[in-house]
Amino acid sequence: MLPSGFRYYTFYECIARNALGEASIKIQLKQGFVPGHIGQVRPNTVTATTIKFSIVPPSNYDGLPIRSYSVQYKPERQPSWENALQHTWSNGKPSAPYIVENLFPEVTYHFRFAARNDVGLGPWSNAPSTTMPRRSVPAEPTVLLPVNLTYKQELAGPYSNHFELRWNVPADNGEPIEYYLVRYCKVRLIERNNGEESEVECSENIQQSVQYTNYPLENLMPDTIYKVELRAHNAIGDSTPATIRIRTARGEPHQYFNYKTDFVGSGCGVICANFRFCFVVILFKLLSYFV
């Protein structure tokens, strides 16, 4: 319904009657407006090619939910907004990331933001201009964990002899990521009183293809603490390491099924067992025949 005048934006009463009585409900018809200016936009994380923003929503939108946010951005040397690039995010969870990608290193950009509801797009609000950093090593990868760990806190691994390391692809900072490097060491406690530790039996830097975002750590020892480091590498160099500590579960070192060896071993056991059974039966029959 589109009211033809402001006088229709008022209170209405809906009444229902039958033989037993009546009931009523009051309804207010209000005029809807586009959202106001966005409260605040702040760049949180800046790499050579990406910016992650935090957005404070507008305070006056008359109860209509914000459906999306839009950003327009252009290089400083471009005078008009007419040919500016634009990106829109649906307004989902409050912690949803608002990230602008594919920017150029060492270029200054201007940004402006607007919110949209069911009525339409609100006014544009300017955000701080940002000069992108120069190309550099990749950002530190983020290891995917079921819980947040503090410094020197250990993740309890579900298995006694292996662990699946998984991570998110970090920003490449202007140069494509070529591969990942994984390194892990046993951690031994030297002094229990002051918590002094040493790293022993460290692996070499294991190179993992950029096509994968996981690496299986195998042949680990049960009930043992391991320090794991993960780096991303591009043409400029290695990122800072993402570091986690895991403690393998108690149990035997070989407590899980390995399709490369266990299947063959199991099959051999069945075959060998059947062979021994058949041999005994044949021998028994031969002895019975001669007796």
User: What would the average pLDDT be, to the nearest integer?
Assistant: 83
- Broad CATH class of the domain at 142-248: Mainly Beta
Strand content: 35-45%
Number of helices: 1
Name of the CATH homologous superfamily of the domain at 142-248: Immunoglobulins
> Roughly how many Å is the radius of gyration?
33 Å
* Structural class by SSE content: mainly beta
Main pleated sheet: 6 strands, mixed
Keywords: Repeat
InterPro entries: FN3_dom (IPR003961), FN3_sf (IPR036116), Ig-like_fold (IPR013783), Striated_Muscle_Regulatory (IPR050964)
Could you characterize the architecture of this molecule?
The chain is mostly beta strands. 10% of the residues lie in helices and 39% in strands. Strands 11, 13, 14, 15, 17 and 18 form a six-stranded mixed sheet that branches. Strands 6-5-8-9 form a four-stranded antiparallel sheet, with no helix packed on it. The protein has a three-stranded antiparallel sheet with strand order 3-4-7, with no helix packed on it. Strand 8 (108-116) and strand 9 (125-131) form a beta hairpin. Keywords: Repeat.
Q: How is the secondary structure organized here?
A:
Layout: E1 11-18, E2 21-28, E3 40-46, E4 51-56, E5 68-75, E6 85-90, E7 98-100, E8 108-116, E9 125-131, E10 142-143, E11 154-156, E12 163-168, E13 179-191, E14 196-200, E15 206-209, E16 214-217, E17 225-233, E18 242-247, H1 262-290
